[in-house]
Specification:
The protein is α/β, with parallel strands linked by helices. The chain is built from twelve helices and 41 strands. The chain starts with a strand and ends with a helix.
Amino acid sequence: MLTKNGKVFPSCYYFLTFLCFFLLLGCNSETDVPSLLEGTLTLKNVTQPSSIYAQSVAELDLKIENTGLQRVSVGEFVITEGADNFRISGGTCGTSLLELAPAESCNYLLEFSPSAEGVYSLGFTLGYYSGDSTVLKQLKMGLQFQVVTSTPVPTPTPTPSPSPVPPVLPKPGELVVDVPLIHDDTLINNKKEIIYTLKNIGDEKVRIDEFYFEGGAKLFTVTGGTCGSGGLVLQAKATCTYNVTFAPTSIGQVSQNLVVGYYPGDSWNWLAITIGLQGTGIQEQVPVPTPTPIPTPSPTPVPTKPGELVVDVPLIHGDTLINNKKQIIYTLKNIGDEKVRIDEFYFEGGAKLFTVTGGTCGSGGLVLQAKATCTYNVTFAPTSVGQVSQNMVVGYYPGDTWKWVAVTIGLQGTGIQEQVPVPTPTPTPTPVPTPTPGPNPNPADGRLHVEGRYIKNSNGDVVVLMGVNIADPEHLNLKPWERPNVTAMSVTKNAVENFHAKVIRLPIHPGSPSYPNEGWFGANGGQKYLDDHVKPLVNYLTSLKIYTIIDLHYVEDWSGKFPKVAAFWNLVAPQFKDNPYVIYEIYNEPIYPDDWNKWKSEIAQPAVDLVRGHAPENLIIVGGPLWSAHMAGALANPIVGKNIVYTAHIYSNQWPTHIAKNFGQAIEELPFFVTEWGFETGGTEGGNRTGYGIPFAQWMADHQFSWTAWCFDTRWGPRMFDGNWNLLGGEGGMGTFVQDLLLQNHLNNY
């Protein structure tokens, strides 16, 4: 006989043995013993170093096993306590659904970074589904770890030296969300909205890329929130929201996953979090009439506050160049205890210079629940100099009444005239053994070579190429929802025919495991990628004697990457070896280790030798550690070979204070091609025209450096265009500034 909670359960010998075996394993989930007959996740063991020391990084290995009789689907692992000291660094469980059969296991590797001695707590929640069930279960666990003050003294050696204390690395940006939230019972053909708050719990920013529903939108839709559909930069510890609406059309429970993709920091390592959505459609019950009860005295109810819209005002659009645009997002909040129904908006006296160009409030019909918010994106487009003021009126109905109420938003902005900078004379080139270089026309054959610190043509003239980066060609061709109505070819033609770019850099993304069908190393990569997305652009540009830089656009640590670098260039280099207008850039931005000599010996020199074996004459561009910003070591230990040019990626956060430290004398003695630079006030790299753009452009001209500005795009910042392909200008926008430089170069040299 087996007893549990005071009840007696008869059982045969085998069943008793079987059940006792699972009881001995222990049940760490929130379910009791009978759940073992389903699928149950259990924390089997934690492997850790024998001692953990302060100011160091230790690795913990958490083994998770399916101790039930059905398969389980492992979901999201969320650190609920200790997020400042613990982070996921790897393991086989992954970050998306993984199926484990009974008795199968996987693991999570965690980095533990304690800053001082003491006891540290780790709490986590792991979501999973048992068998074919759509009910999210959870494994919750709390662990403690003892940290001692210092590392053990190493055994003396003939030449002892103190071991450096490993630096405490910042925790990468990471999105988490409080789940599960349940939409609960919702009448069919009605709607219920829940606001999900996403938080960046890391020490660095994240860039939200997109969201999508697995299996189609079905009955859940995103109807608002501040996270947006892509492009939002969320700083450390900051939050944003998605408003998710459930609209059932039939009776029964519905479950679906909302996936949010993002990039941590400045990397292109795509990550995703999955939000499990759940709601139940119900039929409205017609109440059966009951006799009117005899009224009894009741306490006086506390009156509820009617729904009321408010907006934080005034917001000022500020100075805006005439014939340009500036957008401000106004957030309206229902501060009452009841809903409001937004009816309309209009501008007093006509729209004039202010227009609504987006937002979640809409033009009428939105129901805003108590304490909920929505937005209006208002754009100011001045046509003359001077201050402009206007009122925007938003009408709404509180609760279920038809009493029309309005909130007025005072709009204000000032049109200013762009100051045209006085052109400065083209600097005289530094004297070299050859005659003083003049303008840089393309030679008849287009062949370029390196001589000293200069790029020259076959006539011996110094060549200074000026152009732009476009976005990844595959993105432009196959993701129309990101940039509607454009292709890689249309963007390239715009840059060449309207902006007079003389060189176009093509950033070829290697891809991400999260998108197996995209990128160079994805299912549609290699020769197909080359034929579909690269060769048409190269052929077009070559026909106009415009140069193309083919850039293997890794933005990652470089250790162990040589096999993939070699695979890329073994395919690409031979196919353009006879085209003098094609330049090869071997690796966009290697990050760590920050060691020029190791980078050169393990990646850069072998890659240059490989390319040179296929293409004897083409220019090769070589970057270096820390996002191609630490190049000083190239002077003492240069790349061996001919026609080698070094790259510099210099944004406003490095200019001008870090130039001497990062580049040293190499910037004065070696040939350089600045393949990335740019500015956008409030954007990814910051900066402005006066403090960075003008002096940096003059610095490049003084050194006769060729360059490609980043980026001729609406999304990848710093940007030259807004979301509607309008040039960004004024003090904070680089679009008109780069346009002027390219036009001046065109007029001077062609």
